[in-house]
Amino acid sequence: MTKAFLLMVVNILMAGGGMAQPTNVPPAIGMVSTTNVPAMRQSPLGQLPLRQSPLGRGIELRTSYRLDPSSHYNDGSDVTVQRFRLGAIVRRSIRPGLMLMGDVDAEYATYSFNQRDDTIFGKSGFMQDAITLRLGLMVMAPINDKWGWQAGGSASVSGETRADLWEAFNGGAVGGVSRIVSPDFKWSLSLVGFGFEGSFLAFPIPGFDWKISERYRLATQGPGLNFITTLSPTTKLTVLSRWEYRQYRLDDDPPVPGGKYYDQRFPLGIELTRRFFRVLDVALEGGCYVYQQMMIRDKDDNKVVTVVGDQSAYVGLRMSLQL
Asked: Residue 248: enclosing H or E segment and its boundaries?
């Protein structure tokens, strides 16, 4: 249950994550301004504008690709991963001051393991391809010129393409408040809730956004921290760190029928974002995974194996279009 809950927290915080998920954080969680940091736009469960009133109605289309070149793990396994992602955000005013944001996101991942009979990850057919589908809704509104609130939920399916869809389902909710302390500093606090097998768990998530100067800002975004430098009115450079956590339900084939595969990474990276024609953002990201871990649990949630990987590089490309 702990692993499933952690996955749900990450899905709500980062769903979808941009190139981090997964992935798509209101001021209560992410504290990143969509007005000042176009590179950091994510799902309604991944952001909220840092101002007294929400953004106007609109649509954002986004896509991304990431390549994780071969990573070596301490059991002798080597794995290369490619991730393709498509998503959309729709914003609509319900009434003056009250905004509804809907988000849909799909990620296709293809894993390529070295074929070794003495490692479970190298068994034929294991995690060759997987898909994650997610739907999120968020309602947000100001309380006054300093305080605001938001509440929403997320549902997702994540697993191998032939896995049982119901067993691959996750759902949760988030709510919180934010405060504009000054034009240069905002903080927030959100509560993430998750129901699983008849029990309910809740998890507090603090956040902040600090505009250090006209050129620099420091902000949280889900389980991550970003240092953003404005190079020009259309170009930004972000030094980022984050925690990525993915869980996939396995299909009914060997080596672990109906089990779960966990992929955990801690990347440090740099992202360069450029805006074109006032509506198109293109971002290039590269960096290093400073920690990687893979784990498999069987269908009864018993741990089968855990392995740790060496440091390795990654690269990614992301685009978003504002309509």
From this structure: strand 244-249
How far from the centroid of its chain's Cα atoms is residue 301's Cα?
24
| 65-87 mean pLDDT | 93
Give the helix, strand, coil percentages of the chain, each rounded to 5: 5, 65, 30
- C-alpha radius of gyration, the chain, whole number: 19
CB atoms < 10 A from the CB of 12, how many? Answer: 33
Q: What pLDDT digit, counting tens, does each position of 215-271 carry?
A: 999 999 878 899 999 999 999 999 999 999 898 999 998 889 999 999 999 999 999
Residue 78 Cα distances to 51, 119, 197, 274, 281, angstroms: 46, 10, 35, 34, 34
Pairwise CA distance, residues 5 & 172, whole Å: 9
- Look at residues 222, 225, 227 and name the one whose alpha carbon lies nearest to residue 211: 227
Which residue is it, tokens 């290369």?
Answer: 80
Closest CA to 52 of 35, 77, 75: 35
Cβ-proximal residues to 164 (8 Å cutoff; 6+ apart), any chain:
249, 251, 252, 258
Contact call for residues 164 and 250 (beta carbons, < 8 A): no
Q: Which two tokens stand for residue 204?
A: 């507090």
Distance from C-alpha of 125 to C-alpha of 112, rounded to nearest angstrom: 10
User: Which token pair is 49?
Assistant: 């504008």
* For residues 24-33, average pLDDT: 34
* ∠ Cα 235 239 243 (to 5°): 130
Q: What is the pTM of this model?
A: 0.80
